[in-house]
Design a protein that fits this description.
Layout: H1 5-14, E1 20-26, E2 31-37, E3 40-45, E4 48-54, E5 81-85, H2 91-99, E6 104-109, H3 112-121, E7 130-134, H4 137-143, E8 148-153, E9 157-159, E10 162-164, H5 172-180, E11 182-193, H6 201-212, E12 217-222, E13 228-234, H7 242-255, H8 263-267, H9 291-295
Length: about 300
């Protein structure tokens, strides 16, 4: 649940109201701040803005890229169980709980301080449908016997180059474990800070290549308002063109199964072709996962 600091700086510069820091702490994993400005509450981890929420309406004010986590409904129209690795300010958890009242959401979050902040400042309410487990995401999967219709990965750590994907959550072995915890039509959605052809393109390409070693089809949704690309990997072997996806989206919205306001608009960002730099991007494994190096590559 992270957006690069430079984008955050643009938001800050555009705001006219003074910012008020309402909470600050340092955990074992992050320097955490909660900042209110112009009616929007923002969660900051280290040098990046993690989550946003409108104080007037907690279902609004979030970063655009989180809406692409709803795109898996296009490939699995009967989602009833979701696992999310990474909690942040709980934007996605709030959204799924509101728009899909029959869906159960588990979250694996490594930092107990993040859970306390989400409860106290970002309206997270745990229940029989909304459960948070304080555990590393990969360890949670290894110990779990459950299978999910959708697994969302949005976890970042601080590195020498800024925000970085945890290496053990970006490898072929991790994605194989993820696949084993999916139902027959299960889908993975994965947030990567980067772009398709410029900044951090090599890390996007590496995640794409690595997902393709396990999943037959991988689609990409680049956000328009930030440097985020959400990759959606499906277990279904057949490809889907934009026309077919539009038809499916219309049925989902018309039937009331999906009620996210921007669902059909967000679909238009889909990219079915491989990234243009795919040839030079490695497959990441537990023995070779240079995540930080790819993020710091010159010109990327």
């Amino acid at each position: 649940m992270r957006v690069i600091a430079v984008i955050a700086g643009l938001f800050l510069a555009a705001a006219t109201a003074p910012a008020a820091q309402v909470f600050e702490t340092t955990s074992a994993y992050h320097h955490i701040r909660v900042v209110d400005q112009a009616g929007v509450r923002t969660l900051c981890f280290d040098d990046a803005w993690e989550s946003r929420m409108s104080l007037q309406n907690p279902l609004q004010g979030h970063f655009e890229y989180t809406e692409y986590f709803h795109m898996p409904w296009l490939w699995n129209t009967n989602i009833s169980s979701v696992l999310m690795i990474g909690l942040g300010g709980a934007s996605t958890q709030r959204s799924f709980e509101h728009y899909y009242p029959l869906v159960k959401i588990d979250t694996a979050e490594i930092d107990p301080a993040v859970l306390q902040v989400a409860r106290g400042y970002f309206t997270l309410r745990e229940s029989a449908r909304q459960k948070v487990h304080i555990e590393d995401g990969r360890i949670f999967l290894r110990r779990s016997q459950d299978r999910y219709d959708l697994i969302i990965v949005d976890a970042y750590v601080r590195s020498r180059y800024g925000s970085a994907i945890p290496q053990h959550l970006a490898t072929k072995e991790f994605f194989a474990m993820t696949s084993n915890h999916l139902t027959t039509n299960g889908v993975v959605a994965y947030n990567v800070i980067g772009s398709l052809a410029a900044w951090h393109a090599d890390i996007v390409g590496a995640i794409y290549n690595t997902l393709k070693t396990i999943f037959p089809q991988v689609y990409m949704f680049p956000a328009a308002s930030s440097q985020n690309v959400v990759l959606v990997a499906t277990k279904a072997p057949g490809t889907n063109d934009l026309y077919g996806l539009r038809q499916r989206a219309a049925v989902l919205v018309r039937s009331g199964r999906v009620t996210l306001p921007n669902f059909q608009i967000r679909l238009e960002q889909v990219r079915a072709a491989a990234p243009p730099n795919i040839v030079r991007c490695p497959v990441l494994t537990d023995d070779f996962a240079p995540v930080e190096g790819l993020a710091a590559a010159p010109g990327q």
